């Protein structure tokens, strides 16, 4: 593994961030700066925490800590999508699809956390 870009959870998270960002711009204008902004920031936080954790991979506990942050931000995204789905029925189908993608990403992050906790060496391999 040469880079964080080699991590499956990163490639999935960045792809989902791009989709989520575009989706958030479909919200009504007044919501773009409220719920839309929160959704964009939490989605960005998922992949950013994966990257920061990878940067600290030499220190297993730091790596795990940032992966946990990524997982928490992933849950936050789901929560925002649930609210959007309820508040804006016309966006409900796409919000539910994205929410299902965040479910899959959450599972992958969780499994990766378990792998790092059990198998990651202190030298980052």
Automatic annotation (TrEMBL):
This is Four helix bundle protein. It comes from the Bacteria. NCBIfam families: four helix bundle protein (TIGR02436). Gene3D superfamilies: 23S rRNA-intervening sequence. It holds the Pfam family 23S_rRNA_IVP.
């Amino acid at each position: 593994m040469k880079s964080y870009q080699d991590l499956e959870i990163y490639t999935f998270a960045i792809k989902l961030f791009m989709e989520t960002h575009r989706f958030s711009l479909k919200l009504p204008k007044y919501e773009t700066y409220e719920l839309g902004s929160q959704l964009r920031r939490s989605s960005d936080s998922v992949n950013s925490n994966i990257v920061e954790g990878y940067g600290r991979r030499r220190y297993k506990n730091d790596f795990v800590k940032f992966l946990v942050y990524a997982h928490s931000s992933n849950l936050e995204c789901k929560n925002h999508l649930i609210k959007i789905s309820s508040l804006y029925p016309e966006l409900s189908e796409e919000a539910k699809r994205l929410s299902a993608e965040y479910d899959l990403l959450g599972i992958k992050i969780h499994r990766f956390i378990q792998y790092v906790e059990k198998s990651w060496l202190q030298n980052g391999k």
